[in-house]
Known about the structure:
Layout: H1 3-14, E1 18-22, H2 40-51, E2 57-60, H3 62-66, H4 69-85, E3 89-96, H5 100-111, E4 120-123, H6 129-137, E5 144-150, H7 157-160, E6 163-164, E7 167-168, H8 169-181, E8 191-197, H9 202-211, E9 215-219, H10 229-232, E10 243-247, H11 249-252, H12 263-285
Parallel strand pairs: 1-2, 1-10, 2-3, 3-4, 4-5, 5-8, 8-9, 9-10
Antiparallel strand pairs: 6-7
Helix pairs in contact: 2-4, 2-12, 5-6
Amino acid sequence: MGFVDRLVAAVRAKNSVAVLGVDPQLDSLRAPGLPQGYTLSEFCCEIIEACAPFVVAIKPQLAFFEARGLDGMRALVDVLAVARTHGLLTIADAKRGDIGSTSAAYAEAFLGNGDFACDAVTVNPYLGSDALAPFVARVREGRGVFVLVKTSNPSSGEFQDCPTPQGALWEIVAQRVHGWGSDFLDAHELSPVGAVLGATYPDHARRARELMPHGIILVPGYGTQGATAADAVAAARPDGLGVIVNASRSLMYAYLKESQKSPGEAAAAAAEAMRTELNAAMHATRQ
């Protein structure tokens, strides 16, 4: 079964478009990255198990695992294994993209069958088509690809909004995503070559849907970054498909606002509330 078929099945079975971002923060002067008494693996896996009934996928941010060295990468393997046990899709938030041979190695690492293999990966299009070709080729093996199109960080417009004769730079990337994915449409008229588009730019999201009518849009920025549920589902199709919405810190660190609950209990409550809010926003857009 292809990536889109598995994702749509999960969305319908769980009545959810929510994605758990697994972003175990590093220690800071203000707070430790892990709850007291937890290892990295224990913390992440407890959150995943607790949120599993309410989310369709996890999106581990590789930086937070890589920064912890071998222990971090071993924990990543545990995270992916637990997610698969609970029937969750896995999206490596790697943002890779390099010259062809290097991208081929990245594609093997994250979309192959090795220790870090996931169902999909985020990629950076800055180097052009040949850099993304090895990732797109894996679509034929049932994998998915999410291309950075319009990101949620405050300075994203510094380059992404630059005007060109063909429109803003991000719009050109969106058009190319549509082109790369047009050969892989499934019965749902969706492509496994999708886009990352931040929830903090809902107007861009609606324009993105026009440019990528068949793309699955992975939406970060909901929750801690300030975007509302309505913002997050702005690019949804009328049938409710075509978007999945990520939340990371607002789920993983929900326990900091719920001192009477364990990290898993607080995350589960936050994930259920997220699903409810997104579904309500989706319903409102169809009225």
